[in-house]
Amino acid sequence: MPPYISLIIPAHNEENYLRPTLHSIKNQAYQDFEVIVVANGCTDKTEEIIKKRENGKVKLLTLPVANVSRARNYGASKAEGELLLFLDADTQLAPDALQKMNEQFTVEHAVATTTVKPDEQKLSFSAAMAFKSFRLRNGLYKGCSGALLCRRADFDAVNGYDPELIMLEHRKLILKLLEKGKYCCVDAPSITSMRRLKSWGVGRVTLFWIQQWLRDKVGQLPGNDYEKVR
Predict the structure, then answer these.
(1) Is residue 92 domain-resident?
(2) Looking at the domain assignment, is residue 213 inside a domain?
(3) Which single residue of 39, 41, 45, 156 has CA 20 to 30 Å from 140?
(4) Order of strands, edge to edge, in the sheet holding 109-118?
(5) pLDDT digits 0-9 by tens, 48-97
(6) Looking at the domain assignment, is residue 23 inside a domain?
(7) Alpha helix locations (H) across the chain?
(8) How many domains does the chain have?
(9) Count of other CB atoms within 10 angstroms of residue 188
(10) The domain containing residue 67 runs over which residues?
(11) Strand 182-192 vs strand 109-118: parallel, antiparallel, or unpaired?
(12) What are the CA-CA distances from residue 225 to residues 42, 206, 229 (Å)?
């Protein structure tokens, strides 16, 4: 039988983050899943790391050019699960995350994310992620923690991610999926990397996302200054 959940992980030069992400998936209480890692435009050891872990549950796909939205769409096209979980390569799942998704993502929901915690317990990081979780949990902003869940049928019906977007791509997909059902924030915190906050600083990151939020509100495309941080 095909797995119930397909986890799709786009990975561009993620050799420093991918191992703990895959380890967190391996240790899930709920085991009816497959993992599809889409290495896109990699020049480091990302593909080597995945190849060592390939088995009946973990698969490697490759694309020659780095594009996170195209990678997610490609992974979804090869997925067998009824549910699709798009997971960032630097985001670890709580051990009961898949179990809680299976329990809390009901027929009335079309899209879900999780609460979020930082991978480093620094006060500014913890405060930033607590505020983000508060907004997600209360539906003040229907966004993504680094893990986004939907049904494959709904994903296909809205034509997936916009392949031209590398920023706010989750938000655009969520808005399309909300036409199919409700939004849900699963109470199982994902642990995500603070590499951008460490590189840019909390103030710059906050200002940057306020600017993108305003662009989104007035119907403008996201800016193109989202530099990669590895």
Answers:
(1) yes
(2) no
(3) 156
(4) 58-63, 33-40, 5-11, 83-87, 147-151, 109-118, 182-192, 91-92
(5) 999 999 998 999 999 999 999 999 999 999 999 999 999 999 999 999 99
(6) yes
(7) 18-26, 46-51, 68-78, 97-104, 123-137, 152-157, 169-177, 195-200, 202-217
(8) 1
(9) 19
(10) 5-196
(11) parallel
(12) 21, 14, 12
Q: 80, 100, 73, 55: which is closest to 163 by C-alpha?
A: 73
pTM tops 0.90: yes
Spatial neighbors of 65 by CB under 8 A, at least 6 apart, are 40, 41
Higher-confidence position of 222 and 178: 178
What are the structure tokens assigned to 163, written together?
């392949």
Angle at 177 between CA 175 and CA 180, to 5 degrees: 125
- For the cut 60, the answer to whether the pLDDT of residue 225 exceeds it is no
Is the separation of the CB atoms in 58 and 11 below 8 Å? no
The DSSP result for 132-168, as a single string, is: HHHHHHTTSS---SSEEEEEHHHHHHTTSS-TT-SSS
- Cα separation, 149 vs 72, whole angstroms: 12
- 3-state secondary structure at position 81: coil
Give Cβ neighbours of residue 165 (< 8 Å, ≥ 6 apart).
Answer: 69, 172, 221, 222
Bridge partners of residue 109, in order along the sequence: 182
Q: Could you tell me which residues are beta bridge partners of residue 192? A: 91, 118
CB-CB contact of 119 with 191 (8 Å): yes
CATH of the domain at 181: 3.90.550.10
pLDDT tens digits, one per residue of 11-39: 999 999 999 999 999 999 999 999 999 99
Q: Residue 107, class by beta-carbon neighbours within 10 Å (0-12 exposed, 13-18 middle, 19+ buried)? A: exposed
| Structural domain includes residue 206 | no
Token pair of 123, please?
């006060």
